[in-house]
Queue: 2 jobs
Job 1
Amino acid sequence: MTKILTKHFDEPKLHELETYKRLDGYKGLAKALTMSQADVTAEVLKSNLRGLGGAGFPTGAKWGTVPPADKVPGPRYVVVNADESEPGCYKDRVLLTRAPHQLIEGLLIASHAIGAKESFIFIRGEYQNQYDIVAKALKEADDAGLTKTCSIKLMRGAGAYISGLDTALLETMEGKKAWPRQPPPFPTVAGLMAKPTVVNNVETLSMLPFILREGGEAFAKIGSPKNGGTVVFSVSGHVEKEGIYEVPMGSKLRDVLELAGGVRKGHKLKAVIPGGTSMPPLLEKDLDLTLDFDAIRAAGTFLGAGGMIVLDETADAVEVAHNIERFLTHESCGQCTPCREGSFWSEEILERILDGKGTPEDLPNLTRMGENITGKVICALGDTVGVIARTWQQKFPEDFKKRIPHGQAS
Amino acid sequence: MAKRVKFKLNGTELEADEGRLVIDAAKDAGVEIPHYCYHPALGNPGNCRMCVVEVAGAPKPLVSCRTGVREGMDVKSDSDAIKRAQASALELHLVNHPLDCPVCDQSGECGLQDYYMKIGKYQSQVREDKQHKGKRIEAGPHVMLDQERCILCTRCTRFVDNVTKTGELGIFGRGHEERIEVTPGMTLDNAYSGNVVDICPVGALTDRDFRYKVRVWYLDKTDSVCPGCSRGCSISVHTNTIRPWHNDGKRVARLKPRLNPEVNGYWMCDDGRYGFSNLDADRLGRVLQVSPAKKDVSWETAAQAIAEKFKDQNIAIASSGMLSNEDWASLNNAFPKASLYFTAEPDQVGVEDELLRKRDKVPNLKGAENLGLKSGSFNDLEKDLEAGKIKNLYVIERDLTKVWGAQRAKTLLGKAQFTVFQGPNKGELGDHYHYRLPATAYVEEEGHFTNFNGVIQHYKKALDPIGSARPDWEIFDLLHMAMKGVPA
Amino acid sequence: MTPATKVKSPFTPEQEKVLEGWTKAYPYSNMGLVEALRSVQDWNRMISPEAAARVGEIFDLPFNRVWGVVNFFPTFTTKPTGKFRVGLCHGLSCFLKGSNKMESCLEKTLGVKKKEVTPDGKFSWEPMECLGACEQAPALQVNDRLQGAATEATIAKLKELK
């Protein structure tokens, strides 16, 4: 099975410059520096690399929206979004721990492509161990003169899931509350301190060394049409072997489950959340779905950041829905009313149902409220509040109904 | 010059400047799109989500306060989907809103009440206890804060951050723990604090001055001009005459700014907003001969007596920029040879700032200037009085105790041969003049003030005069006739 | 307007230097604010209004803006945490693996309820949102460093921290 990011993960010193260089490290960067900015972007476009932080937007296309320096002179930045906080996702943590130089190389390639002379790695505050590892690798890179085309600075977050959203991340970096912005303008036009800024995920940037070394076409060949390369899944929950698994885009859900050892022994699969708790769950009948952005979208959910949580029959859909809504309520930035109030209300209703005090009106109320919130809020967190309120009861109505006392009118 | 473009709103073809916000373009066409957080002077954060509209080609509803008109745009603000979206956005604003209407001053002019009646009218589905936050917080000398009622539209924080740049309010917390709070260590005591009450769509920020005084639906509203300084902010005088036993019997309930892009924008300062206690206290309503014996007299009798003394023409007039354009014209007509003292120094000057407040704390010195009238200094008047040079002293709308101090003023007053006082309020020296004439306050008359920039503004009559009070210009005309020997 | 505080700085000269340093660490001075506040939280286990006001002065930012940032991010607290701030994830994967039981274990072992500080000031614990260690569920963290899975044994070991 083709591996790109985790190819050398059996090498214990992969995080050290010497080892990384020995294993074709920084060859992609060297190649990129001989190419024009436009050619590097074209190569990435050819590769069909999609954003692996959750949105799945074609990376080359995103870079293409950065205004050229002759039209908009002045600094432009690349920001690495290492604020991984979606429940179920931990692949960025592993990539930062094991392969920091892979990220640094990818970041330098991206910086060259858009003409950035200064770039930033924003690491969530709770990844202090990873911060130390990346800082050490960065020093190695600085000392070796690798960052002479673009200096890289680290910055730590201070918690808050919402600061992982690109515009909210930029707000945090500017010393403000992580309140998402409302484009236009988009960050690539006016981002960090109103300068053109590309925000890319750790995994996305880590793919670039391969793309530049082997070519965009080779990357595109791995994977499915319009979804190039591989994707790393963080698997957790009721499986035998939790861990990260890198598979080509377009692999079957069944295959990833198998790699993780399948549902834990003696239990039966109830649901799989493919991309992190914000995404609707898939059921046993969906196991043959192919895992890429487009196919999963067509199946009514999202690939997200590949945080695959496996649930067996011991999981109760009401408890799960409540857990996720509690998370969303706690993390809602509070800027817009529907999300701020709707998330709190959903959590309260679900808590009431868990306490056995639910009423028959609660379920259609949750659905109605969910429909009213999704699409009418400032950012995707709000959309998710509505999605969660609807989908868990849609997929597992029995779990909900059995908790609501019969004939209990409002 | 912006490009004019054609677009459709609810099926009607319209024209607007390209880029004009859809919510404003709709308002131009008479279509009110519900909203809370948007304010033309405070920006468009788009956080209330009430103003959503459907735009053909857009995948989801857009907030009209952040969408600019483009050529060929097809906008719907009245479709079923939008009506549902508005009602549901409103519902989520109300989920944790306390049922305070019976005790909330905002009742009757509340954004939640108004929109509920227009686009809501749904059955509440809330079965939970509402979230509790702080109530009855004294945010500042003029403003009361109730965090439970707050809908977090951020208008008030934007005001103190961007208009007054004083930062006394902030939003602290995250998600549903957010509340508007007074910044620790601060008090909301900037010179414009009352404006946050105007812009708050709900009863979260209310006026301490107006608290529990009278219900807003009993108020009459009259366009007027603030007489607090030479800026002359456009205001609205809110009066209560229907329920005279409310508001401690005071007729003027409150003053609010009126939008005037040329003069004051949307705001007024606290000095002007709260400086109307002299309209219902210490008022003169009787035409009075004070000396040698206190006697009520008729206007004609008083005019005759005063004309008798004035006609030897040595008249010193101490007045102020409180007089309207009509008053100045009439005064000049009646007393062309009088020595005039109306300069703002020393007692009618104060703080000037970059926002609205001007140094001269009277509305209409410009009116006198435009007529070519010149003022002597009160120092000179003092000298002349001291030297016994003043025969007739006519004091109009000026409190001499504020010019010279109470004792000194009384002494100087005694040095003139014949003194007349005219004004709305009695003041400390009211019993030390020979004649006392009641004048109307600006809310009881109609007139014009000219502000420091030369902008002439019309103020309208909001209340009936007290007792026998008459506008200053009417009294001047009366005296003029009497001095000319014209029978009353 | 009453200024928030113009009292003398609540920081030592060395700490002042560190904070000044954060104004110069990035191309724009305000970009250093979150890192500066992290430093204050590390030193004092909390951020008081006075500390926040002084940071505002150093960064030339209005106090209500700085206080807004302090009250927004979970890393910053306005009440003291223990010297060792223990975090137990209660995200979905950790919940499925019994984070509730581990919460009770923490309460019993450390002897305080969540967000309370032990009398000697050494420990406080609280549930946290997804810590990005779902394969080590239920994930345990001390002062922003992951400690692997929370078990009765690993929780007991916490008491050995100096």
Job 2
Amino acid sequence: MSEHIVPVKVYVGVFLTLMVMTAITTFVSGIDLGPWNTVVALGIAVFKATLVVLFFMHVKYSPRLTAIVIAGGIFWLLILLALTFSDFATRGWLPSLVGT
Amino acid sequence: MSAVVAPEPEPIEPRDNYLNAAYGVRSWLLTRDHKRIALLYLVSITFFFFLGGLFALLIRLELLTPAGDLVQAETYNKLFTMHGIVMIFFFLIPSIPAVLGNFFIPMMIGAKDLAFPRLNLLSWYIYIVGASFTMWAVVHGGVDTGWTFYTPYSSLYSNTHVVATAVGIFITGFSSILTGLNFLVTIHTMRAPGLTWFRLPLFVWSHYATSLIMVLGTPVIAVTVLLVGAERVLHLGIFDPSRGGDPILFQHLFWFYSHPAVYIMVLPAMGVVSEVVTTFSRKNIFGYKFVAFASIGIAVLGFLVWGHHMFVSGQSVYAGLVFSILSFLVAIPSAVKVFNWTATMYKGSISYRTPMLYAFGFIGLFTIGGLTGLFLATLGVNVHVHDTYFVIAHFHYIMVGGAIMGYLGGIHYWWPKISGKLYPEGWARFAALVVFIGFNLTFFPQFILGYLGMPRRYHAYPPEFQVLNVLSTAGASILGVGYILPMIYLAWSMRYGRNAPPNPWGSTGLEWQTPSPPPTENFKVPPIVTEDPYIYSHEEVEIVG
Amino acid sequence: MADVQPAEPALQHQFESMEQQKEASSLGMWVFLVTEILFFGGLFLTYTIYRWENARAFADASRHMDITLGTINTVVLIFSSLTMAMAVHSAETGRRRLLILFLIATMILGGVFLGIKAVEYTDHIQHHLFPGPGFRYPAGADAHGASLFFSLYFAMTGLHALHMIIGLGILTTLLLMARRGRFTAEYFTPVEVSGLYWHFVDIVWIFLFPLLYLIGRHLH
């Protein structure tokens, strides 16, 4: 890891941003946006997680390999989610293989 | 004052290698030396290999006759379940990585040890603890769910020791994860000066790929068996159809790991084959980068095909099509390797030593196993041969004809380095031949049986299948002899074998630049690498041994 | 040949330099966190499929969550990530007393989180919302979907809480080491990698909170 020492005010700034985003996500959840509720909630969660990863976990100041490792892990989780979901979402699209 | 000073007695042997550096049980059980840890694993997995073999023997004895007359159906269910669990989780998955990988990866990269030696020892202890839970289950009546633990039978209805076995597998999974983690970090951060990625031996590349799978896949089966255990203990209902649960979801979670797991079992063996084929053809590998990238390709593509185990389970046909096409794709990097090994041998100076015999066996039998995988990946064919002996033959060709032959080839190839002794070549070649003959006699008839419709996991069958079953059982007994022979002569060689020189095969590779057996710190002076691997000269070299 | 005394007493024998050791330790923790992504990932998959199949039931069941306690817990955990980052910062700058202070603060916040979770669990169990034979749900509602929701709630937050407890154990070890003066501005790798673990556990909660507490609030 690099020798770069993150200044305290960056940590405090990130913390305050995370607080604001938490307040927003809780507040928005009470408003009916239909299917967008989930999108907004997850989007905010991803944004918060990114801030923690980049600044609290120093990834912004770390070697590229670290970012590749993280991206790999997330990508693999997405493989699990996407391919499994592709089964459940496409049931009934084609006739069954085994009889009726 | 004068005192008579007796001369210092001559030491019986200098303490110069990892085997005699320290004596006593504590020096083995508390070791941090990757080489000693490899031997701890060697002893443990050999025990489980023979335990799994015992279950196989009982299965084949039952199947000598069409009637279910040796054991009851419930007992037979336990036999094939325990055979699968023990062989997969406690033998095959650790085998080459935990024994040969642990021993040789640090040496091949010029390091003194792995990145985390204490974690390495912990991995072995975790393996033993996990195995103990499973052994407890075996001794107290076993498990009858099949190694696949399909719900809701495993989560609700089975009256056997599912929880103990699930706990055992959960714990052992961490052994695998930590080994993979150790290998990945070691290969990334501890290569000797000058050892760039494309100068690494292919054995290291294949273990890197294997470690990716261990790290990415094992956690998913860990959480899955945890859920099955939670189902049984807490009655959560996650996989209970009567409470909204979905058994097919279990299958997705299970096979997400268990398909890539088969690549955990075969990739290390492919790494052994690359080393053996180059050494005993005295020739550079054909297409180094292709083989290296093929290992990574197998690891990656292997994660995209798991649904081919679920074509007839109720999975959507559309997803079945996707998984079928992807399964065809994963055959390609494997085929690339087979072509490249063959091209390596072309115009090479071949010597038919035992490791090379096992490599030949691997290449031929893995090819057959792999090609039959394509039959299974074809949706239409799969409908007819799913859950038949065709599947059993397919995966045994890969796991036994492939992985176990690779393991035995590697054990023989590196035996001089590990033990400092030469094994008796005549007996070893004979045993390899016995294994090859026994293997094919056991499993080739099973392709035919499956094609003719004999279902798997049944202890009784229609009389017209008896001849093929008898042939298979005969083959299994011969195979068993073939496996016992190395136990005997390898042990014999440790006491009575000729001492091995540092490099009996005339091989390139850093591990051969040390004494046999190596010193604890591997290299007296840390090596510097200046050339590609597998640079063989055309001079005649006498192969000792 | 006499053993060369390493210039750095903290340098382990298998490494050539402190920098290599630090690089390996950091990469090792990140690889471990990837395994944790996949470990929790199996539960996230189960949640995704069951919520997709039982959307209304999940939303209704989620309204049994105490949003105040959930939000407080989210704030507590994010605050604990700040104190953990400050602990690493104190170690980096060689400030032993501040390091100890921030480690203790992080542990207190972690304890508060677990305490609130214990209150929530007790409440849910008393209301017969733990799945299994004791599960009781209002008539006319989708009890199966609700049962699946609560199974996932207890499984996911339970696993998360287990990781918090392990985290507290790790912090205790760090605290003892810090008190004995084991860390300097040159060597504080255990603090750093433990921080990575703690932040990861926080990130899991950042996702659990909206997925378990906030899905039904906009419905009536």
